Amino acid sequence: MSAELSCLAPAKLNLFLHVVGRRPDGYHLLQSAFRLLDWGDRIHFRVREDGQILRLNEVPGVPAEQDLVVRAARLLQTQAGVTQGVEITVDKVLPMGGGLGGGSSDAATTLLALNRLWGVGASRERLQALGLALGADVPFFVFGRDAFVEGVGEALTAMDLPPSWYVVIAPGVSVPTAEIFSAKELTRSTEIIRMPDFVMHATRNDLQPVVCGRYPQVASAIDWLNHHASARMTGSGACVFAEVESERAARQVVAQCPERWQAWAVRSLARHPLHDRAAAPARND
Ligand SMILES: C[C@@](CO)(OP(=O)(O)O)[C@H](O)COP(=O)(O)OP(=O)(O)OC[C@H]1O[C@@H](n2ccc(N)nc2=O)[C@H](O)[C@@H]1O
Ligand SMILES: Nc1ncnc2c1ncn2[C@@H]1O[C@H](COP(=O)(O)OP(=O)(O)O)[C@@H](O)[C@H]1O
User: Fold this and answer.
1) pTM value?
2) Is 51 marked as a binding-site residue?
3) Beta carbon of 97 within 6 Å of any ligand 1 atom
4) Which end of the chain is more exposed for a tag (fewer CB within 10 A), N or C?
5) What is the CATH number of the domain that holds 221?
6) Domain boundary residue among 159, 194, 220?
7) 66 lies in some domain
8) Element spanning 180, H or E
């Protein structure tokens, strides 16, 4: 008999992304609005009593030791002095290096799930702080609701947005985040805005011109989607998105998408699923 749990690791969109400065260590200071999506990877956790942390399935391009789910589990186990272990199965749905935060979300879902399954009882704030060591977007996914994000990803302010439908397109390329942040043509001095006042048309993704200049597939996906609704890149790319008025409109655009790209109709998600189930005990099988 061992405790187990299956959970969505939701994707995110950066509704806008401004680069407002650079720290002495080279990391960039950002302002961004992060939105959760009701779409993502699926992760299954099963507690082991022998302390081992195992990923059971293959994930192309991600050896188990480098997988953020394994690294997140190991970090929590060490930091909280846990003697139990876990078997993890990752059903990868999100394109990697897509700017949808897949790896970071997998890590955050792992922290939230194991905090419960192992009975650690760490506060959300503590899990956010732990998550920052794994990646800049992990604190947001632990926070688990739409947020204004500042600093390098650690300063979060909750934001309430009405539900929306989006079209998301993967233009079939993977963009390395480090390459884009180190580009000499990147502008790093966008004026700091008062975040709650943002309006989409007055914002942009500062990484988008750099990515479009280097990856023409991203530029052409934005051009194509712009014919249907106002299109923009998420994160450091390569995925692009547009908000549309309804599920029906989203599905119509997806149906017309050229075959060389992948497209999805997705709706927003108000809360990370583990937040909704915060009070529920882990299932025992
Ligand atoms: C810019 C965002 C917005 O969501 O892009 P996406 O990764 O989602 O596309 C993220 O904050 C990215 O976070 P993450 O993907 O975790 O980046 P990391 O692996 O920590 O960083 C990869 C590399 O990008 C650069 N980097 C990253 C984040 C940042 N604020 N400044 C940087 O200069 C650093 O050179 C770093 O070594
Ligand atoms: N569980 C995971 N899922 C996806 N990528 C992972 C995972 N663990 C480690 N990675 C590494 O993180 C990189 C960035 O992946 P991802 O988070 O999908 O991109 P992005 O930050 O652009 O959304 C991948 O190329 C991969 O090497």
Assistant:
1) 0.95
2) no
3) no
4) N
5) 3.30.70.890
6) 159
7) yes
8) helix 177-181
Clarify whether residues 114 and 179 are in a common domain. Answer: no
Specify if 275 maps to a domain. no
Exactly one of 41, 67, 106, 137 is catalytic; which is it? 137
Rounded to two decimals, the ipTM of the complex is 0.95
For 28: left if phi > 0, alpha if psi spans -120 to 50, otherwise beta; the answer is beta
61 has binding-site annotation: no
Interval 46-57 mean pLDDT:
98
Residue 241, in any domain of the structure: yes
Q: Distance between CA atoms of 268 and 70, rounded to whole angstroms?
A: 27
85 pLDDT band, cuts 50/70/90, is: very high
Query: Binding residue per annotation — 95?
Result: yes
Lining residues, ligand 2, CB within 6 Å: 62, 66-69, 90, 94, 96-104, 106, 177, 235-236
User: What number of other Cβ atoms are within 10 A of residue 148's Cβ?
Assistant: 19
* Judgement on whether residues 169 and 149 belong to the same structural domain of the protein: no
Q: Are 34 and 83 in a shared domain?
A: yes
Report yes or no on 283 lying in a domain.
no
Parallel/antiparallel/unpaired status of strands 53-55 and 28-48: unpaired
Say if residue 258 is in the same domain as residue 243: yes
Is 206 labeled as catalytic in the residue annotation? no
Closest residue by CA, ligand 2 atom 13: 97
The verdict on whether 285 is a catalytic residue reads no
CATH number at residue 52: 3.30.230.10
How many domains, in total, are found in the chain? Answer: 2
Residue 99 Cα: closest atom of ligand 1: 9
Q: Where are the alpha helices (DSSP H) in 95-164?
A: 102-117, 124-132, 138-143
Is ligand 1 within 6 A of the CB of residue 136?
Answer: yes
By CB neighbour count within 10 A (0-12 exposed, 13-18 middle, 19+ buried), where does 174 fall? Answer: middle
Q: From the candidates 12, 106, 146, 206, give the one annotated as an active-site residue.
A: 12
Condensed to tens digits (0 to 9), the pLDDT of residues 196-245 reads 677 888 899 999 999 999 999 999 999 999 999 999 999 999 999 999 99
Structural domain that includes position 112: 3-159
